[in-house]
Structure formats: structure tokens, C-alpha cells
Amino acid sequence: MRQMLAHRFSVFAGLLILALVVVACGGQPAAELQAPTAQPTVGAVEPTAASPAAAPTSAAQPAQSSAELSGELVVYTSRSEALFKPVLEEFNKAYPNITVTMLSGGNGDLAARLLEERASTKADVLINSDMLTMMSLAAEGVFAPNDAPTVANISPDYRAEDGRWVALTLRPRVIMYNTELVTPDELPTKMADLTDPKWKGQIGSADSRNGAMLAQLVIMRQEQGDEAMTSFVQGLAANETQWFGGHTDVRQAVGAGELKLGLVNHYYYHLSKAEGAPVGIIYPDQGEGELGLVVNTTNAAIIKDAPHPELAKLFVDFMLSPEGQKVYAEKNFEYPVVAGVALAEGVPPLSDFKLKDVSLKSVWDELDSTKALAAGAGLP
Fold it and tell me: What are residue 303's DSSP bridge partners?
């Protein structure tokens, strides 16, 4: 049963398309989508002692200090542990008596699991890297509304109207390259340049399991037509692109010099750079008449009938607080969705770039047909 449900949602895995940021939103890119795993893995994040932080209050109950709040919170997440654990650690510094148990899996697997567990849910919160899966699960009634001010303050482009899901971070699609293998004068400037035969055998990219890759193809098709999109995929296939289920393998191959170019979300470049890899970054399609950057998200939602709804709300509040957003920005090089949170050193503001204006509904409507066209053109 879960396998069937996971297949239903796999077409949406990782697809996080966002509308054009007209005003500098200070948002953070989301962590990468992971391909669905056969069995989710479970890991507990132990609380760490720290000075208390003020807990949210409501008219219904008296204020409590963070040290007085206790309990267990179960978080399902498609984000990698390396990217998500720093946020959990900071949460436990603020709330040392709340134990967070993390269950990791692919977007499709976790969606299927939540549908299967609806009669007796085990999860309190879902954190994923696929806005369209969030929209689909919300329509299925899996999430609870959230009227918290922290959610209401997020741009309507990045949340459900009733707060059933909300974006946490933003991330643009970029090309990274090995600076020891590619000279500045030969760098591509747009995605279509990756079909140049000079790059044959030298490109890495996520495949159809990755929503960010599918998102690009949907937008390319909408903007440039079926022929341009299929020609792009055919060109990548003709160039013997090395396909991966996710971006971590892509960025590691580029950093190690196994490939010259990689198609990734921007923060993978920054992670590799921080590790000392000889890499550079290209923000593509910035010229007149070109596509512009495609930006996608990571997201959060509270599960309907969650065992610990108040702790779940507290956790989402923390991730949307300046403190939580600062962790995403500083540790993961992501763009915050909350204005006023400083970006990590070396991360340029999104206002520096031309961004692609995207209709979420049109992406949703055209996803299946685009995926079929891309598969026919050679996307595995």
C-alpha cells in the first residue's frame, strides 16, 4: 500500500517552485530533495543544555519558561541529517527538556506514510523540500491549520492561506564548476549552454527523481516551448551527462574533479566551497530575454491530530523565528524567508538577480506531461 502511495507522490518529489520575488524577500533556498528510500531511517536528537529562551504565550495558558516546557516531538523530514540537525540542536538549546525524534525519508515515502497513518498519526511535524507535495497533502486533509503570527507574516506566495504549510527557506538553481578544470572564458552563461558538445562526459545532474530538476524543465517548457525543453534534455543525454538521484553526489563529483560542471541548488556550491573544494558558481540565464533563476523551497506543516500539537506549533514558530532562520542561513547557506535575517558571508542577495516568475498552479498542472516528454527525450 505504501509503495503505491509513494509512487503517487514521487512525481512531486523535491519540486519546490516559487513565484518571482518582486521585493527582496531575504528568503533562503531549501535543502535538497532526496530520492525516496525503501525504508525511512530514524534518529533521535538529544537535547543539549543551554540558557532558556522565552516561550510563546497565548491567552489560553499562562507563560512558561523554556526550561519548564518538556515532552517529545516527532519530526518526519526529507532533508538530510547534516542540513537539518543544526536547526534541531539550536531548538534544544532554547528548549532543553524537549526531545526531538527525527524520522528521515524521501518526499514520496513520507507522504505515503502520513496518508497510511492518518487514523493514528505518529508524526507531529513534516519538514520537506517539495512545495507541491505539501499542497497535495494539504488537499488530502493531512495537515492542521496554523494561525500563528510567525506563519501569517510569511509572504502568501510561500504558504497556504490557512497556514497548513509554510515555506522555511529558498534556493535558486545554479551551475557549479571545478575552477581547476574550467577557465573563465569558457564558462556557460545559461542552462542551454550545457548541451554544447564540448562538455560531453563532463556534466553531472539530478535525474527525474529530483523535483528541482523537473521544476526547471516545466518552467523551460512553459517559457520556451516543448521543442526547446526536449532539445535541452536530448542535448544533456547526448553529452553523456552523469545522472544522480540527488545533488550531494553531483557537487562531490565536481569538487573532486571527476566532472567539470554540475547542475545543483546554490547552497551545494557554498557547502563544497566551505570544505575547501576548488569550485565556482554560475547564476544562469540572466541576459535579456533569458529565463532567469528558478527558485524553490523547503517547507513545514503540523500534522492533523498530531500527538503533541502545542510542541509542534512551538517548533514551527522556532524555525520561522530570527534565531531559527539564522541557523539555516549561517550553517546551510540558505536564503531565509523572514526579512532582516543576515545571509551567510559570500551568499549574494536574491535581489541581485533576475528571477523567473512562476505560477504554482501551472507547474502543478503541467508536471506529469513535462515528465513524460522529458523521459521520452532521455531523462532517466
Answer: 143
